[in-house]
Amino acid sequence: MAVFEVANENAEDDQIVSSLGSIDLTAQDVWDLYNAQTRQLVTDASRCINSLSTSKINRVYLSEHVVVPKTKTFAKDAQWIKKENESARNRVEESIKKAQDAYAEKIRQEQERLLRERKEQERKAAEERARLEEQRKKAQLEQEQQKQRADEERKRQAELDKQKREKEEQQKKDALAKKQFQDDPKEDKEKYWSIIQDLKQNVKKPVAENKEWKNYCISQKRKITPRIGQVTPSQAQIARITSNLHETFTAAKSQNETVYRWVLNFFCKGVVRQAEAEVSVNTVSAYPLASVCLKLCAMHPSLFDMLIARLQKKCPWVIPYVYDTTTEEGMKKAGFKRMSDGRWEQHTTYNERQCGIFAVYAAMIALDTSLAPAGWKFFARILNITPPPVQMIQTSLERGQTICAIVTTFLDVAGKAMIRLYKRQAEKLIIAACSEGYVGKQGGQSQYARLRIVGEDWTQGKGGLAFSFDP
Question: What angle do CA 90, 93, 96 make, to 5 degrees?
């Protein structure tokens, strides 16, 4: 296929025009055929033009399907050819520039489209990530809320169960306390005196008559007595002593029931002796001793009644009951000791011993809320003793002093616990115990005066002993 080429240089243009000879196409016809679409064909023609051997061409193939018939001859001169050539070049360059600009615009638009698509994809991806993150957070929050609700429900149920158990335990303890302390103090004191008689007949006597039992019990006495004397406010020491005594009691129980009761009874006697010797001069020492007693009573339930019986025997004010002290038996049951010379102990010594023993009982009430009803009953009973101490100043001063000393000890040791449990009602009893109608405004010597001072401390919010256990 033969095509024409328009050269880029003027000399080449002249050569092309000269080589065309007498071809029947005019120059205008040739330039009309040259356009942007045939640019590549012209480029190919430039490679073939020099191979033409004749000055005339019957046909010119511009493309596979374009045929230019032979018509006119060239009539243009070289100047016109140059002009047209320049014009054509300009058109070509313009076409090229337009094509380049169009292509560049297309590229720009394509880049912008791709950028928009990328940004859209990134936006959608970000939205998807945000949506998934929101779903994750929502699911996590829901899971945490469900867990929290479940935990709260478990805690609520556990608290309800705890309250139910505490209520049931308190009801049992209250029922036990009511059973232990009836409304009539005479019935209560007879109950515990009967326990003392039972111990004499069914424990003390059989052990004394059985050599093997007796030897075993004597060996246990050597373990119990020093441990009671080692009690301190240290919780670790209390736990150690309690554990040692519990082992001693358990070992005795493995022997037989009689030996077991003998050992428990001896422990109770030891507590009373410790109260007379130490607590009577140091009231706060009642708390650690009472703590040991309460822990052991929890491990050995039969110990409690035995301990109350021993406390009540030596200190009848545990269950307030006024004995007739004009008789020998009445003096003994009132807790008086006969001296070696046959005389009864001085009233001052008696009051000290009574307060020491009673302080252990008051400390048990302060440390164990299940004994609060017993504490309330004691307080009500001693306040209801007739005549009241104010009337005893002229008739029974010593008894009035003892009652004032016992009330003072109770307020010092257990007063805070009573107010904590019974609040305003306990405050009313304390006010009544320190009122002029009960203790009088003046007179009655030291114990009366001390109760009045204690009453003033309570009205100022300073009543009660300060005590705390050590680690």
Answer: 150
Instruction: Name every residue whose Cβ is closer than 8 Å to that of residue 38 and which is 6 or more positions away in sequence.
Output: 62, 63
209-223, 239-253, 327-341, 361-375: range with lowest mean pLDDT: 327-341
Tokens of 152: 């709260």
Tally Cβ neighbours within 10 Å of residue 86.
12
The residue that leads in pLDDT, 127 or 46, is: 127
* Superfamily of chain region 185-459: GLE1-like (1.25.40.510)
End-to-end CA distance of the chain: 117
Alpha-carbon distances, residue 368 vs 99, 174, 288, 294 (angstroms): 105, 12, 13, 8
Q: Is the pTM of this model over 0.70?
A: no
Provide CATH 1.25.40.510 ranges for the chain: 185-459
* Residues 296-343: tens digit of each pLDDT: 999 999 999 999 999 999 999 999 988 888 898 889 888 999 888 889
Q: What's the rounded Cα separation, in Å, for the pair 314 and 269?
A: 10
- Amino acid (1-letter code) at residue 178: K
Using DSSP, state whether 316 is helix, strand or coil.
Answer: helix
